[in-house]
Fold NAD(P)H-dependent FMN reductase.
Amino acid sequence: MTESTPTPPPSDDPLARIGILISSTRPNRIGHHVADWVTELAPDDVEARALDLARIGLPLLDEPDLPANGNYAQPHTRAWSELIMGIDGLIIVTGEYNAGYPAPLKNAIDYLWAEWRDLPVGCVGYGWGGARKAIAALDQTLERLNMKVLRPVCLEFGNDLTERGEIGVPNPAPEEAVRTLYSQLIAAGSPRGAGS
């Protein structure tokens, strides 16, 4: 099995490009509110890009070849690959479903292989337990893909946010943690368009 690495798109942009991946696709989800808040905290030297799995709409994995081979037959897979190759780091915003992370997120991860290697990633979990069990399970997958996994930020209902996903509780700690996460992503990554 040969592993091909997609060629990153060229970039003259000095900004770090950080993807904000919204993993829930439920109709009444709140993840997009949390993602908006994370995006607002992006420093000036970061271009935060929303990657909303509900809008991206990947079907259940339908590639005939193994993702590690990089021989993508489906246009949606090639488009997904280009989106991931166009970022320098990733923040996954996730809730917790039955002590795990959302199925659409696992599906989106499984579509690709080489695109994930060495990509810095951090999670922002939300829910009654701050999605800690979901993030623990997710970390195993991300580490298997050789991503640079950073310390997560866990937002709990009642302490950090409302059940509607509003960051309305006066607690500066989550905001500082997200700002630190951005700094770590920038430090851990390098622009993917810069000749690797």
About this structure: The domain at 16-188 is CATH 3.40.50.360 (Rossmann fold). Helices lie at 31-40, 53-56, 75-85, 103-110, 132-144, 172-188. The chain has a mean pLDDT of 90. The CA atoms of residues 41 and 179 lie 7 Å apart.
